[in-house]
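call fold target=FAD-dependent oxidoreductase domain-containing protein 2
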Amino acid sequence: LGLALYTGSLCVVSGAAFLYHDYCVIGAGPAGLQAAYFLQQAGRDYIVFERSHAPGSFFALYPRHRKLISINKQYTGKSNSEFNLRHDWNSLLSHDRRLLFRRYSRDFFPDADTMVRYLEDFASLLKLRVQYNTAIIHVTLEKNEQAWNGHYFLLTDQDRKNYKCSSLLVAAGTWVPNVVNFPGSEYVEGYETVSTNPEDFTGQTVLILGRGNSAFETAENILGVTNFIHMVSRSRVRLSWATHYVGDLRAINNGLLDTYQLKSLDGLLEGDLEDLAIVKDKKGKLHITLRFYLENRNISADIDSITLPQDELDNFATRAPYDRVIRCLGWKFDFSIYNRSLRMMPGKGNIKKYPQIKPSYESRGTRGLFVLGTASHSVDFRKSAGGFIHGFRYTTRAVHRLLENRHHGVPWPATVYPITQLTNSIIKRVNEASGLYQMFSVLADIILLRENATAFEYLEEYPIGVLAELEMQTGRKAQNGLFVIIMEYGRNFSGADKDVFYYNRAVGEAQHAWQSNFLHPVIYYYKRLPTEREMRLHHPDWPLPRPDAIHHIVEDFLTDWTAPNAHILPLRRFLENCLSTDLRNFFAESCFLFAFTHQKLPPSCQQGYMRMQGLVGTQELRHHAVQAGLLRDYTHTDFSDDRPPDSHDGSPEQLMSDHGIPVHPLQHLVNAKDE
């Protein structure tokens, strides 16, 4: 049987044997292992190719100084596992409670070696199908009308073994160092090879090219032993607390900013690196000059014959020679292994280091090729957390759900609730959902209304960039309107030049919720799905096209949106206005009255009281209702007159009054409170 299965999985194309799998995953880093987990849970045919002997090979080398900048918060004061993932930036998603990162390290900023060990356990304990020591060196297409996407993906490894798959998931990350070529760049050391021993820099002057976390991490390591450190980059420093982007400079690495601003010799400069040139003198010192000074000269010529900027400007900032120049410019995606038939093209502008993909994480050039993990960050670059574990663990799950619907007819998971649970469902999710919280403005919860708004379907963490394709991508119908729930920062609160600590930076009153600056829930209401044209042309500062109605839940210092008056009541009234219905919960007495005085009952009465459903009354509950003014206190009714307790004057009004039912039902409806 094993032989039959093996031979059945082999395909022969042009004399070459191809081992076939439905899904091929390139890379066994965090994103590749996360994809493998979901594929395995769904019982799909897949294989993961990893060039190294173990998963997470990137973390075996990087960061060079071994301190991760992804937080590992041990305590939140809550036991809700979904909420706690908001503050656990290292764990992958799984059903196994042993595979929470806090069980591997108690450090707030863990060591990278711990991440390597964690990924090894994730792959082994879950028995993921990873083929190690397999470097895919070439990927091409084979047209075939019978294939899922009209073609197969053909992969070749370093041993010239061949593989075929119907869908290709690229989770190889960005690992090729960014290099800037200029005259003298051969004297530059790379971040990937520079010494991490501070003693090697004792008494030296150092120039660092770059201004990201790797540059500041390198500077932090040698700050106490160097003469001084200068840092040059094209753009100004961007602090993560100002931009609210975790990929910008983090506080753990920003010691150089202190020594610069407090005038302790170190400094930051801005300039285009491609305009630089480096000249080495006889003593081995490195001098910074500009490229145009060397246009007609030989860089190997004696330095005395080369014009330096300080020859014309004697206070030129980098006139002092350096002992070392270190390049810390980050990484880019490796496009070299993909055949032109796949049309894997780099992005444009500041996302040119990533491949071009759609908001669904599918390649713009090839159907069936999806990019996962760090390499998919072009979708939300400098906006959200899609380039980091705590973000792409959710986008990877979203891609898996898209594939389940496309290839296996499994609709996007959804839960159906009666309309009376609409407010509660939203409040629950915005208070605990980690995917919405981490992938703010990128992933959204979608509420699809049923006919006559008597019920709704709740879909979690759908990519809003493909909202117009929701019916096709999820297998769900959106014919009666929908709500979109996302998390957002304030429009003008984030930016490298923003003062995020100004005095009145927070909003506390519900009527000013639309001016909230910090991360807060926003609910969009559409009477119909936005079109692709509307999605394409919407304002760039808005995550979605103009809705029919919008509601901001006011920001909260504790990120706890459960305040009855500030959070829940305004939300409920917004939902009621959109649906033209009453979403309050009523006691049986009120429903009884409405049944005799109104043609249409509130949904809570229709779906509860009229079906003989609801809470069973207790003495404690009745006492609470009386104190709140919701029910009449029958225990203090005065029956001391001559009439029997059940006698009345005969009028309907007196009958209702004697039984605690208000004479004016409309006034009762206005004054009714939430249960």
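return ok
The CA atoms of residues 335 and 344 lie 7 Å apart. The chain has four domains: 19-174+332-402, 185-329, 415-579, 588-624.
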